[in-house]
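idk why but the lab printer keeps eating my pages so im just putting this in chat instead. protein + S-adenosylmethionine:
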Amino acid sequence: MQALWNAKFRGEEPLYGDAPNQFVKENFEQLLPLQNVLCLGEGEGRNALFLADKGLEVEALDISDVALFKLRKRAHAHYLEIKICHTLLEHWNPSARYGAVVCTYLHLPKEKQKMLFEKAVFALREGGLFMAELFSESQVNFHSGGPKNIGLLYDLNDISDTLKSLSCRVLKLAQEIVILNEGRNHVGRASVIRLIVQKVTLVC
Ligand SMILES: C[S@@+](CC[C@H](N)C(=O)[O-])C[C@H]1O[C@@H](n2cnc3c(N)ncnc32)[C@H](O)[C@@H]1O
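predcted complex ->
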């Protein structure tokens, strides 16, 4: 896994561009009062750099040390501080201390997808927000990037079922057609799932 992603990130140019993901950019103001944010599967750091520049305390988790090295270099160049967590999501033991968790395009095999949502929501403090954009299974019909294997794509109903089992309130969960313009790798019409959930204590 690490070798595969390291090979993809070897080039000079950022794979998904410099600009933050559009959904994150459109919604970051909701994160500002939440103080600290963890970016999962953050790669070269386009969201992390953007959010740190907006004044949030940012931590970035990823398995690719090549991507994280580039992230660190870019942060340094912009006088931004970003904490780095170099690990596989599978090995990470979250503690509930983040105001927000952000995740764009972290594509895991079906049997591990539930874990992503469980860990992201668990990592939040009460009232914290989890914001994500992921390719849907319909992305196999488009040529704008993302995995070609349906087993690495997300199903809206599966996500909805998973979220029902977690201590959270769904503020947004939608499958949308968007036009991507993210570096060389995400370009054109795409089918994505966008979600924002808030951690709450459920009273039965
Ligand atoms: C498609 S890239 C997206 C990068 C970044 N979120 C963005 O949108 O620019 C997926 C990222 O997830 C990381 N990744 C994939 N599987 C992972 C895992 N199991 N644990 C931690 N990171 C992982 C890869 O190293 C890569 O940086």
